[in-house]
Amino acid sequence: TPGPEELAEPAARTAMASGLMTCHDCGLLTKAAPHVHDASCPRCGAHLHERKPASFARTWAFLIAAMVLYIPANMLPVMNTSSLFGSEKDTILSGVVYLWTSGSWPLAIIVFVASIAVPMLKIIAIMFLVISAQRRSLAMLQQRTRVYRVVELVGRWSMLDIYVITILVALVQFNALATIQAGPAAVAFGAVVVLTMFAAMSFDPRLIWDATEHDHG
């Protein structure tokens, strides 16, 4: 009876185990010369590498920085409003609460999902992918690849509240009724989004499938 590792291991080999490399610029599949670490694509001249250099280290660096900045992004004011009636500082969560209590619950849900839930889930998903790849896990290989694709897809939609602040600043200052300025949390939140995007770009999804190659060091 085959063991769980044999059931999880696909029949096809990875391109790297077969001595092949794919160009990230033009997509050309090239036969890799043995013991050559500085190869170039014969079609476009781009640098070829079997796996993204220092993928784990760079992904962890971006991910840890994003986790550190995620705290001030949600704790500090994201918007400072000044008017004739005084000034007010709002965080992302207080803005969601205000939208909910004022009856704009669809917008409150959208802002909560895009500004709080999505960045946190993205950090958790990338951390899961990195840890499982480093542990050379054979579990859920296809599902983990789909998770990576979803992380890349939704990452660009995580700055909804920054767009809302920009529109509010333009509208309110145009009417000269009040002044709205982006708070320090806006910078931290923007950095979180950018860092998670860099973390997803630094992670090489082919490392997920390297666990199926027993002869890969």
Q: Features of this protein?
A:
single chain, 217 residues, 7 strands, elongated
Mean pLDDT score, rounded?
76
Number of domains: 1
**Strand residues, percent:** 5-15%
Radius of gyration: 23 Å
The major sheet is characterized as: 3 strands, antiparallel
How large is the count of helical segments?
8
The CATH class designation is Mainly Alpha
Question: What general form does the structure show?
Answer: elongated
SSE pattern? HEEEEHEEHHHHEHH
SS-derived structural category: mainly alpha
Q: Strand order within the widest sheet?
A: 6-5-7
Assembly category = single chain
Element layout with pairings:
Elements: H1 4-8, E1 20-22, E2 29-31, E3 39-40, E4 47-48, H2 55-75, E5 79-83, E6 86-90, H3 92-101, H4 105-134, H5 141-154, H6 160-175, E7 179-182, H7 184-202, H8 206-209
Antiparallel strand pairs: 1-2, 3-4, 5-6, 5-7
Describe this structure in words.
- There is one protein chain.
- It contains eight helices and seven strands, in the order H-E-E-E-E-H-E-E-H-H-H-H-E-H-H.
- The protein is mainly alpha-helical and 217 residues long.
- The protein has one domain: Butyryl-CoA Dehydrogenase, subunit A, domain 3, CATH 1.20.140.
- A three-stranded antiparallel sheet has the order 6-5-7.
- Strand 1 and strand 2 form a beta hairpin.
- The two termini are 27 Å apart.
- The N terminus is likely disordered.
